[in-house]
Amino acid sequence: MPLTTADKRANFRKLHESGCFILPNPVDVGTAKALAHLGFKAIASTSAGFAWTLGKADNRVTLEEVLAHLGAISAAVDVPVNADFEGGFAHEPEGVEANVARAVKAGLAGLSIEDSTGEKTRPLYERNVAIERIKAARKAIDADHSGVLLTGRCEAFLWGQADLALVIDRLTAYAEAGADCLYAPGIKTREDIASVVKAVAPKPVNLLIGASGLSRAEAEDLGVRRISVGGMLARNAWAGFMKAAKEMAEQGTFTDLANGYPGGELNKLFG
User: What are phi and psi of 251, to 5 degrees?
Assistant: First the structure.
């Protein structure tokens, strides 16, 4: 019997209580189903990966497109779905609150709100504004009594501000403002990761890991609760697609097509 949305939300919260789990990032319903089939206990959307499926750059999708995408994925799988909800698709806290309220209706088990403005000259929201935006997201979630898990993100490292003290200050403030989980994409060293985990304890920490990052076991030893990979799976898929397509376009040969995943296996998966 399929799990209810309430079941998925309860399961997602339980995953954050102990251990360390991988939260891989699908780009559409098909890849979401594939990840669930492989046994991952939860999945998360990726803003970049989804944008590329629409032929758009990251952070260029609309709120309506994202809500439809999140609703489709949540309905398609029997595991919790966490949303990369970017900056809440609004600058002012009131807009964040309204948009989070709509996102919760999509059946999500969790969502994240980041503090980047998207502007090179002013990459992060002013501290107090960023805190109010987290409070607004918390207010929307609580008003719905949904139990959706809120993740507060500090984007400083991704915008060239490798200031761990700033990151910790913001993450602890976001925790106090109501974030259930904390996330600082871009931190990589064991020392920085351990410092963040210690600073926000006992609240869980999400770690972004790429190709040369720590293993799940190593991250768990540092106290990390969950691991996401952002757009990396999408980039891997695009790598295979572009390699085969370029061979056809530039050489007129088709040898790389032999590396494709078996169609019969995909039909079994989705059958």
Answer: -115, -20
